[in-house]
Amino acid sequence: MKFKHFFTIILLFGTFICFGQNRVMDFGIEVQAYPTGVIPGLRFEKSFSKKDLWSVRVGSQIFDHGDQGEHESEKGFGWGGTAGYKHYFNRYFRGPSLAARVDYWRNSVDWESKVDLGGISKGNSEIQVIQPTVEFGWAFLVGENMVITPTAAFGFEINVKTVGEKTGEGAILLVGLNAAYRIQ
Fold first, then answer.
1. Taking the alpha carbons of 80, 106, 136, 68 in that order, is the dihedral positive or negative?
2. 80 in Cβ contact with 160 (< 8 Å)
């Protein structure tokens, strides 16, 4: 019986340590744009040390690749999410940060291609995309609880599953803006 009380006290003490000083949670919105599309989403970040945090995002991807894909026209939309890790170079989650993120998207792509005899071939492809990126950001604290973070990211869009014809993939450069409410 004494062992159960001791274990309970240790468990509670450990919980208090985990949620101790310099721990933050950010809830907010994020928009990333790239030359052929935009990614709006909702973002949650939770710190686990004085300079590091985990992040998740749910959002959508809206794009018009034009003729930069496999076809003369590729337009689409999809839903997905992101898991990531962010490291701040300063304490208290302000200033410069570097993040590693992986997105997963389920997109529907409407495409068109010209055929040899002057006609147009049309179709739709359902794709699953993995998008690993490295992101640099700079967090500004506005007031006591508002955080604004402009970002720049570089990565690759990789089609891991395609139902239908192949569509565009490759290197991707994104610029973004996050606005979050911080709970300290």
1. negative
2. no
Taking CB atoms within 8 Å and a gap of at least 24, the contacts of 21-26 are: 22/47, 22/50, 22/91, 22/92, 23/47, 23/48, 23/184, 24/53, 24/93, 24/182, 24/183, 24/184, 25/182, 25/183, 26/53, 26/147, 26/180, 26/181, 26/182, 26/183
Q: Which residues contact 15 (CB under 8 A, 6 or more apart)?
A: none
| Domain residue limits at 53 | 22-183
Contact criterion met (CB below 8 Å) for 153 and 32? yes
Radius of gyration of the chain (CA): 21
Task: Quick: pLDDT tens for 98-155.
Answer: 999 999 999 999 988 888 777 888 889 999 999 999 999 999 999 989 999 999 999 9
Between CA 67 and CA 111 the distance in angstroms is 10
Q: Is residue 59 part of a domain?
A: yes
The pTM of this model reads: 0.83
CATH of the domain at 47: 2.40.160.20
CA angle, residues 123, 126, 132, in degrees to nearest 5: 130
Percent of the chain as helix, strand, coil, to the nearest 5: 10, 70, 25
